[in-house]
Amino acid sequence: MAFLPFYIPKQKRLKVVIAGGGYAGMAALTVLSRYAPDADITLVDPHAQHLKITHLHESFRYPLSDLQVSFTDLAKRFDFRYIQAKLPMEKDALQQCQSDKYLVVNEEVVHFDYLLITPGCGNRDYESVEGVLSLQDFMTTSGSDLLSNSLTKQDADSEQTVTVVGGGATGIQFLFEIKQFLHRRRIKSKLRLIHSRERLLEQFPTGFHTYVESRLRDLDIEFYPNTYYQNQQDNKIFLQNKQTKEKFELPSDLSLLFLGKKQENLFEANCFGQVVIDCKPLANIFVAGDCSHYNSIGSNSLSAQSAVRKGKLVARNILRHSSILHLLEPYLHQELGYVVSLGHADAVGWLASQGNVISGMPALAIKELVESQFDLLLMGIDTYVV
Ligand SMILES: Cc1cc2nc3c(=O)[nH]c(=O)nc-3n(C[C@H](O)[C@H](O)[C@H](O)COP(=O)(O)OP(=O)(O)OC[C@H]3O[C@@H](n4cnc5c(N)ncnc54)[C@H](O)[C@@H]3O)c2cc1C
Predict the structure, then answer these.
(1) Which domains can be identified in the chain, with CATH numbers?
(2) What is d(CA 27, CA 194) in angstroms, rounded to the nearest whole number?
């Protein structure tokens, strides 16, 4: 058993329930299994597989199954129990949970000493409309199948128009993969990007926008900034100019919506990751990942990087809290960088400081390095230094 400072295990076998097997949940699980291999851990998740969502745009190149890891296999690797279920995430019920120390999952009473909540952000709900796809569709079917099926319904000889809506990190990563996919498949097509703001990738340094905009021009991708998407009907997309309010339509055989996630159920936490309700921390209920906001100087960004760091921290804090000393560690992690891929051979990102913008193969290599760290973690090899 590996040694964790300030953790002196008690005699009792620790019971931990983790709700959500995404980046934060899996990171926490690997830490628990490393420092407390005899702990009784239950993971509850509505899906059968962990999805490596940061790679999702690559499903135009690889089968979706390459990005999924079955929870049953992970349960064997890390010795935990997996229950396929969706837990209600009501804040009011948590105070009751703190005093009861049990949950009812699929009509079974599951007792715990500690509960960790990591359900991520909710996805936006879209009505299913012919000719429109959203992120949710790509989570169940690979990009290559979705695009091939949607576009083969059209006349093969005529030029197809594909519209990507949303110039955030997800929309941009999908856009460049789609461009390369259409080229590989020799599909006669026109590609355009619609974005509601002036600048692409707004949360990042301006260099990101400048670089991506020049790549759009090189690849002949039409760009409409300051434009709101309204709807898609009969091979047309309906839009509105944000500044002039003028409404207009453009031909579009397929529209792909990447309008961002909604943080619908956000849990406040103290700097140790314990859920805070009515200004009081719940000692045995922790939270991590996109659904959490820690009251600390550490980064609360919606990124896999923060989710993993929070997940690992709360797992250590659960063990320390269960121990004799009760010495917990505050969350201090700052983002180390962020890279947005632009197809299989290009990327733009920042590293160490926001002023240090990098692009091309070096940026892509960093993205791959960071993502392979998480892949290794899922295999039981922890290479995270910070
Ligand atoms: C397409 C895309 C690309 C991205 N690329 C990057 C990137 O390159 N770099 C980066 O740093 N970040 C990236 N992000 C953001 C990153 O993926 C998230 O910040 C990260 O996944 C958050 O981790 P999490 O554990 O909080 O949630 P998630 O990873 O979303 O996991 C949540 C888990 O909880 C489960 N769950 C949901 N509801 C319940 C419930 N009620 N009960 C039980 N379980 C539940 C879900 O099934 C899921 O398994 C990307 C996001 C997307 C969508």
Answers:
(1) 15-122+262-333 (3.50.50.60), 132-257 (3.50.50.60)
(2) 35
* CA 287 – CA 308 distance, rounded (Å): 12
> Phi first, then psi: what are they for 304, rounded to 5°?
-60, -35
Mutate to test the pocket of ligand 1, among 17, 30, 31, 45 (most ligand atoms within 8 A of CB): 45
The residue to which tokens 């983002």 are assigned? 335
pLDDT in tens, 316-326: 999 999 998 88
222-266 pLDDT, tens digit per residue, is 999 999 999 999 999 999 999 999 999 999 999 999 998 777 789
Residue with the smallest CA separation from ligand 1 atom 8 is 54
Atom of ligand 1 lying closest to residue 27 CA: 25
Pairing state between β 227-233 and 236-241: antiparallel
Ligand 1 surroundings by CB, under 6 angstroms: 19-25, 44-47, 53-54, 56, 86-87, 89, 118-120, 135, 170, 289-290, 302-305, 307
Degrees to nearest 5, angle at CA 18 with 122 and 124: 5
CA distances from 171 to 44, 220, 288 (A): 30, 17, 25
Q: Which atom of ligand 1 is nearest to the CA of 138?
A: 1
Q: What is the pTM of this model?
A: 0.95
